Amino acid sequence: MTDFLASLRPEALDAPPSGIVEVWNYGRLREGLIPMWAGEGDLPTPAFVCEAATRSLAAGETFYTWQRGVPELREALARYNARLYGGEFSPDRFFVTASGMQAIQIALTALAGPGDEVILPTPAWPNFAAAVGVRGARVVEAPMSFGNRGWTLDLDRLADAVTPATKAIFMNSPANPTGWTATRDELAAILDLARSKGVWIVADEVYGRFVWDGSPRAPSFHDVAGPDDRVVFVNTFSKNWAMTGWRVGWIEAPPQLGDVIENLIQYSTSGVAVFVQRAATAALDHGEGFLDHQLRRIGESRALLMEALAGTGRARFVPPAGAFYLFFGVEGEDDAGDLALRLVDEAGLGLAPGLAFGRAGAGFLRLCYARGPDSMREASRRLADWLSARPLRA
Ligand SMILES: Cc1ncc(COP(=O)(O)O)c(C=O)c1O
């Protein structure tokens, strides 16, 4: 039998299976299971966004289009960013991609390859490290610690991770899976580090609108960086406007990178479908009401979950500042992989095991609470009952 695999590229062969998908496959067909393993909410895309797409299709917008994105969407991105961060933004800074994931791929393709290193604070969404790996570059983890203040990033540890091979620091704040949210001072210190070492920052601020202290957004590298800084932002429509299935995102980068990014888009997807871009434009221009609705709904679910878990006395967590995940440990349960499978079988709950997010996540579970309060009340009850019914393992 031909050994097909032996002749494949090692970077492709070594791409790891997702530890999230493993539990998902185990439990996806279970009747009545409440799925909280994936990073998405339970609301469909709002109607005004879908209608913009159907209008575009009806108008015959079915042809190849601008590699960088249609001008109207790039202008809408500039307006959205100006509203959110203040100051002026030129549409030249924006590039439409076929998902946040593709924005990450393009940013990394431009910055890192064989022999290069990318620093990544962990626990982190597994796709970051895998995307670095398939480019033949190496991830250097900067493990975060969990203590009384929740998850914290040791900036000295981050600085120690920089070597002559470092090309970029990948920063995700608010973070998936921990909810850790960098302060403005932390972002300024990380930017100073990047400046002093001449390395890039890839800033994933996908959850920047999901903060739970009442602020309209999380601190951002936009607050501290200037036009001469080496910062590439990667972002997505998936979370803010319930558009995970549309596969559309964006890159914001210094305009000097424009031709390179355009070519990388040309040689991957050759651009994003126009009707999808029309939908994305509607989301940016008219989506604040929907986002407020989501935030209120998820905020209520978050409060229910924290209260139920605190009542068990067995869950180790500090309410996270941002994103829509709880990354928690359970007293007496060290093997979170096994625990995630038992929760499928015995509680009808779908959670992701922490080891899927790097070594620093061992012993933790990730729960996505971006659901309506009724469903979250039931999920919290099942989880609290399950924890209370099981004696501590020695
Ligand atoms: C931190 C982070 N960045 C980027 C993405 C990519 O989003 P998408 O590919 O759906 O646009 C995700 C999705 O879960 C994420 O959690």
Word description of this protein:
The protein is an alpha/beta fold and 394 residues long. It has 2 domains: 7-45 and 289-384, Aspartate Aminotransferase, domain 1; 51-286, 3-Layer(aba) Sandwich (Aspartate Aminotransferase, domain 2). It has 13 helices and 15 strands. The strands form 4 sheets. It has a 7-stranded mixed beta sheet, sandwiched between helices. The protein has a 4-stranded antiparallel beta sheet with strand order 11-12-15-14. Strands 1-13 form a two-stranded parallel sheet. α4 runs parallel beside α10 (274-286) and α11 runs parallel beside α13. The longest helix has 25 residues, at 288-312. Bound molecules: pyridoxal-5'-phosphate. Residues 39, 99-101, 125, 172, 176, 204, 206, 236, 238, 244, 249 line the site of pyridoxal-5'-phosphate.
In short:
The chain has helices at 10-13, 19-27, 47-58, 71-85, 100-111, 126-134, 155-160, 184-197, 258-266, 274-286, 288-312, 336-347, 373-389, and strands spanning 34-35, 94-97, 117-122, 138-143, 145-147, 150-152, 166-172, 200-204, 231-236, 249-252, 315-316, 325-330, 349-350, 352-353, 364-368. A hairpin with a 2-residue loop joins strand 5 and strand 6 (150-152).
